[in-house]
Each structure stands twice: as C-alpha cells, then as structure tokens.
Amino acid sequence: HALQVLLIFAKEDNQSDGFWWACDRAGYRCNIARTPESALECFLDKHQEIIVIDHRNSRYFDAEDICRSIRATKPSEHTVILAVVPRTSADQEETSVLPLLNAGFDRQFMENSSITACYNELVQIEHGEVRSQFKLRACNAVFTALDHCQEAIEITSEDHVIQYVNPAFERMMGYHKGELIGKELTELPKSDKNCADLLDTINTFIKKGKEWQGVYYARRKSGDSIQQHVKITPVIGQGGKIRHFVSLKRLHCTNENNKQVSYFFHVIIFITFKSHSFKCKNRRKDSTDVKSITSQSSDAPSLQTRRYSSMARIHSMTIEAPITKVINIINAAQENSPITVAEALDRVLEILRTTELYSPQLGTKDEDPHTSDLVGGLMTDGLRRLSGNEYVFSKNMNLSHSHLSVPNTINDVPPCITQLLDNEESWDFNIFELEAVTNKRPLVYLGLKVFARFGVSEFLNCSEATLRAWLQVIEANYHSSNSYHNSTHAADVLHATAFFLGNERVKGSLDHLDEVAALIAATIHDVDHPGRTNSFLCNAGSELAVLYNDTAVLESHHTALAFQLTTKESKCNIFKNIDRNHYRTLRQAIIDMVLATEMTKHFEHVNKFVNSINKPMASEETSLHSEGSDCECTANMKNFPDNQTLIKRMMIKCADVANPCRPLELCIEWAGRISEEYFAQTDEEKRQGLPVVMPVFDRNTCSIPKSQISFIDYFITDMFDAWDAFAHLPVLMQHLANNYKHWKTLDELKCKSLRLPSEN
Question: Domain PAS spans what residues (predicted)?
Fold first, then answer.
C-alpha cells in the first residue's frame, strides 16, 4: 500500500511543486486540491495519510477552516495534517504553534521549496506519526476481531490482573466484563475438580515465558464447573520482560454430537489440501488433475479442442480466494470441536497463514531435482550466505555500437532488415535472423518498427529521433556477452508483447497508455542484466543485493536504471513532453509490469489472473452462449483498473518466458542459450566458493531435455492455459504441445543434448 498525500494549494508554485516531486521520489501517491470543497471531497474519497495545507496566505482560503472541516470527519483521526507557514525573517519573533494545534494541525513546515527538504519532512512524518497511526489503527482492528471472536479470550497483566475479556468470555463464564476488569485472578472462585498441582504447573511454564495449553476446570458465576481447553501465551514486552498473559479458552467437548461436525471439517481440510497439493505431483501422469482433464483422448488435439481444453482446465482449478474465507470457516469449526480436531485445525491455520500459499510445496529433491533447482534458482533469493567475494558487474554505459550505422529514420533501414521486419507481426517471426543481420542490435530496429505501429511517439509527443536515441541507449546497456539475457531476448519479449497487444481480446481490454507502458516495459525489462540470477547476487553479497535488500534485486535495478538512463539527457528522454500526471501513471504501470517478471510471486500472479479474469469471464461466456447471444466479455474491462493491471502483468510474464511456445527451432536455440548461462553461473559459484543454487545445471552432467520438461510442467503450462483461455492463442498452444513432445522424446532416449543424434 503506497502512502497517499493530499496537497491543498490554491495556486501551483515552487512550494507545491517541491512537495509533488518529493512524493514522486518517496513513491507516494499524490493528489492536489485547489479549493476547500474539492479538498474535502478528495479526502473523503481517498483517505490520505498525510495532508499538506498552504497556510502562507489567507487571500484564497482559510487554512485553519479547511483543517477543522477535515478534522470533523471520522477518517481524519488517522491522518497527519501539516501546515506550510511563511518563513520568518531573522529579526521577527517566531509565532506560537498553539493556534495551529488548536485548529487540528499536527505539525508546521517552514516554507522551503527544496525537494530534499520536502522529502525529508514527508519521510519523517511517515516514520513517526504515520506509522504510529497505523499501529493504533491495527489495535482498533485487533480489538474488533477479539470482540467478534468465537473463542473466549482473557488478557491479564504480569501480576495476573484482568485487563480485558471479550464477549465470548462473558457468555462462557456468565460474568459482565465490568465485574472482572481490574480484579486479580486469585479473587475469582476456583473449581475443585482440577489436580492439586495443576496451577503450579501452569505458573511454572508461563513464568519462564513458555506457552501452556491443556484441559482446565473453571467455575462460572453460577457456580457450575465447566471443562475448558485453555492456551495461555506470555507476551514479552519492553526489556524482554513478560508484560501480559493472553488466555484462549474453548469448551472441552467429548460427546458424540461433535463427531459429525469433526468429520465434516476433516473432509473440508482434506479437499482443501488435496487441491492445494496436486501441483506437487508429476505434472504429466494419468491423473485427473488440472493438466489432464481434457487432454487424454488424443495426443494431437485440434486447435479448437485445445481452446476448450484450456477453458476446461481453468474451470477445474480449485484455487481459493480470498483465503480468509477458509480461515473463518475453520475458526468456526473449532468452536465446538473435540480437542484433537481443534489442535489439528490449529496446525491447518498455521499453514494457511503463511505467505507462500501460492507456491506448490515440492517433495524431496530425489523426486525431481530439475524442478527443485529451478525453483531454488528462480523463486528464492538464495541462501543469504554472504561471502568475501563480492560479485560486481560493470555497467555498460556506452551509448552506441560501432558495428552498424544507425538509420536516421525508419525509411533508412537497410533493405535486408526491412524485408525481415515485414514479417514481424507473425508469431513465428525469427528473431535470431534479425540478430544476425543487425550485428546483435535487433532491439533498435524492431523497436522502431513496433513503436511506430502502435503510435508510441504520438502518444508521448516525442520525435522519432528521440525515440531512436532512447532505443540506442537502452540496447547499449544490455550485455551482448550474455548468452541469454541480452538485447535479443529483450527484442523477443518486445515482439511477443506486441503480438499479444494485437490480439482482439487484449486490445479490447486495455487503453493506449497501457499499450505504450507494456511496450516500454518489455524493452527495458532486463536492461543491464549480469547473466546471473537473483539468488546468485544475494549469495555473493553484491552491491545490488545490498541496495535492494535481497528483494526483487534485478527487476528493481532494471527499472531504476532504465528511468535513470532515460532522464539523464534530453536527447533520449522520451517522457520530457508529457504532463506529470500522465508520466506518473505511465511510470507506475511500467514499474509494475517489470516487477511482475520476478519469479517469487509467479503463482500469485497466475492465480489472481485465473480468479479475477478467467473464471468470471468463463461464467459470463457460459451464460451468454446459453442465451444464444454473442460474448462481449471485455466490454467493461476498462472500467476495472485492477483487472487491467492483472492482464498487463500476465501479458509480460508470458512474453518473458514464451520460448517453449515458439517454433521448435527457435525453442531449441533459446533452451541452449539459457542452459549455457546457467552453466556459466554454476562454474562461477564453484570458483568463488558460493552456494550452488542450481546443481543440476552442471555442464558435464545436465540433461537439457529434463530441465525443459520441468520448466514447462512447473511454470509454463498453467500460465499459458490461463492466458490462452483469455486471449485464444491456438498457434502458441500447438507449438507448446509439439515442443514438449520433442523434449519428452529426447528424455525417453536418455539424450542430454538439444536434438536427436540423427538431427545434429
């Protein structure tokens, strides 16, 4: 959640600009209001965390009146309001801040239009008051949750003085909270059914800071003894001392009536986890899972069948969202469940609350070492083991190559390149031929053609010369020494993105700004890639890994460097002529798409696309077909920016790893290139004494067919089924089926190379 800031300035000046660009630097979302009415309306709509009000001149509006009107609203209790006051001269006495505080302001800021000064002020507010407000807001939410919780909850101080009980506790024990709060536990009547030393045992545990749970008899206000399952957790506070004890209590039921409930929820949990773990199994075995439901009848299904095959697989995916619904059901089940079931469900909840719900859990490495290594290399940030050997790669900041003269206009492109580019709208376009005739500079030439086709220069209001200079700068910062992550890969991803943007379903779902953002994101998405994975950089303690805190290291670098290169010089700044609102929106869209290519959230992106795009669309198609009308499923897509974001993410993800869906010869070439890059990484890890994150990619022992099969099974099939169900891409799906068959044949023949011996 990006912090939101509201600037209330009657007129735009250096001060308002200073705060605007400070917000941009800090990554905050910023709105500007000119009048008191629009300010209040904007705040009630957005609920910004920080409001900056111009208090320097009362000619246009009364800043204190605006502050009071905002403070009169409920959402403002969690908002920090800053007054910009005029700078005082040296001989003037500084005015009191009390009138501002009385009006509802939290702070004052002495007029200073420096972006750095504004940035420092906003960042200090975020790290101080705003974070404190977040904690207070969270506390309110926690107490609301406790009040509605079905479990009886009691919170006591370290001296066992009752400080809080929830309504469920009141109902269970028969007391009103006013009768309990402030009393010591020793003042309440005890049941005589407990073992004599049980209280001593409990105290021994919790005084050592350990959690205790077990069965305990408690006495209700009426005098009845009830058997409870109790869990007491010590809460460690300041200084490492125990500050509170939290007790969770449930009735301990042993009667037969709970067996049916218990069985029912065992069935729910069994189904949930079978559906969650099916992806862990062999992806091509004859079981009725997502991949085989509609593909068992024929080894070579028709293209139309393949289309419905993808749609059927989408319908059969059992991905739950939001997960909180499941958690709530389980919590309700625990209320009257026997202790064994309740404890089992506690374990279930622990698993469901992890952050890796979207990532299938793999079995042992012996089951599929290729998949395990791919996941380890692509979906983690390494083992975090720092080494004295820091991996530093040089940034290629050259702005031109010497091999081939750059055309002055698109019309100046050499005939051999023009002839090749005539076919660039075809999915089977051969990017390697373009690489050869352009002396490894395909990105500039393909970029000029594609960007012209989509009217990028017109949208950005920049000249063709500026666009050409920008493409040169970006391509110059790809490493031609990389076997895979070079400008040819960037051109290939740009080509795939343009192909997808030409698809009717995609085109009908996105705006022109989305198209421009997607093409730019594809162009820059791997700029300055060192030919090593994020895991490698983290393990090596590289400068980039340290800079980006081991999180989305390369993807963050690609976007940051691309914007730095773009804005460094006017001659290649393609954004210089668009207004800042457009720039801000475009920039956010580009960043979001490039970050989506990072693989740690692969399954999250795919599953969100399935749940938010595929399934609703499939339901709509079904109902429309039953009514005999044509499907207009994308008609309202533009009204849902979140859905547009999911489509853009899915599009660039598919474009980035579309190699297995290319014609066989291209697929084989890409497989050889990526394998060589991984081999080189393994060689370097061994030389430097770093952890080897993908051991199967040893050039002496690796089976490339096995690695391709694992990659397709684990990452590609589900994603392209979902994308095909949305966009209908029969050519791609046919190539994928053919290529998979090629790799399976090689694997069955124990061939570790790219082709059969007879084909070499």
Answer: 145-188
What's the pLDDT band for 507 if we cut at 50, 70, 90?
A: very high
Which one of 30-39, 127-136, 406-415 scores highest in mean pLDDT?
30-39
Instruction: List, in order, residues 6 or more apart from 246 with CB less than 8 Å away.
Output: 153, 154, 155, 232, 233, 235
Q: Which of 151, 109, 351, 139 is nearest to 246 (CA)?
A: 151
- What does the H/E/C string look like for 613-644? HHHHHHHHHHHHHHCCCCCCCCCCHHHCHHHH
Structure tokens given for 270:
């069994």
Binding site for AMP: what residues are annotated?
485-489, 526, 656, 708
- DSSP annotation of 390 reads -
Reduced to 3 states (helix: H, G, I; strand: E, B; else coil), residue 662 is: coil
Q: How many CB atoms lie within 10 A of CB 366?
A: 7
| Backbone angles phi and psi of 127, in degrees to 5 | -75, -15
Please state the residue numbers annotated as binding site for Zn(2+).
489, 525-526, 656
The set of residues, in sequence order, having a beta carbon less than 8 Å from that of 118 and lying 6+ positions away, is 18, 19, 21, 22, 112
DSSP state of 187: G
Helix/strand/coil for 80: strand
Separation of alpha carbons 467 and 630, rounded Å: 41
Q: Per the structure block, which two tokens stand in for 263?
A: 């069985």
Binding-site sequence positions: 485-489, 525-526, 656, 708
User: In terms of CATH, what superfamily is 371-382+404-620+633-749?
Assistant: 3'5'-cyclic nucleotide phosphodiesterase, catalytic domain (1.10.1300.10)
Q: What does the pLDDT look like over 374-389, one tens digit per residue?
A: 666 666 555 433 333 3
Lowest mean pLDDT among 148-157, 407-416, 423-432, 504-513: 407-416
Task: State the fold for domain 150-251.
Answer: Beta-Lactamase (3.30.450)
Region 725-749: mean pLDDT is 94
Residues with catalytic annotation?
Answer: 485
Dump pLDDT digits (tens) for 254-291.
444 344 434 444 434 443 433 343 333 343 333 333 33
Total-model pTM: 0.56
What SS3 state is found at 597?
coil
Q: What is the DSSP string of 213-236?
A: EEEEEEE-TTS-EEEEEEEEEEEE
Extents of the domains making up the chain: 4-88+97-146, 150-251, 313-354, 371-382+404-620+633-749
Pair type for strands 152-157 and 242-251: antiparallel
Nearest by Cα to 226 from 249, 203, 245, 247? 249
Look at the domain 4-88+97-146 and name its fold: Rossmann fold (3.40.50)
Query: 143 is written with which tokens?
Result: 């107490």
Angle at 65 between CA 64 and CA 71, to 5 degrees: 90
Beta-strand pair 212-219/225-236: antiparallel
Q: How many residues does the chain have?
A: 760
Task: Count helices and strands (H / E) in the chain.
Answer: 33, 10
Cβ atoms of 54 and 84 closer than 8 Å: yes
Residue-wise pLDDT for 628-639, tens only, equals 544 455 555 656
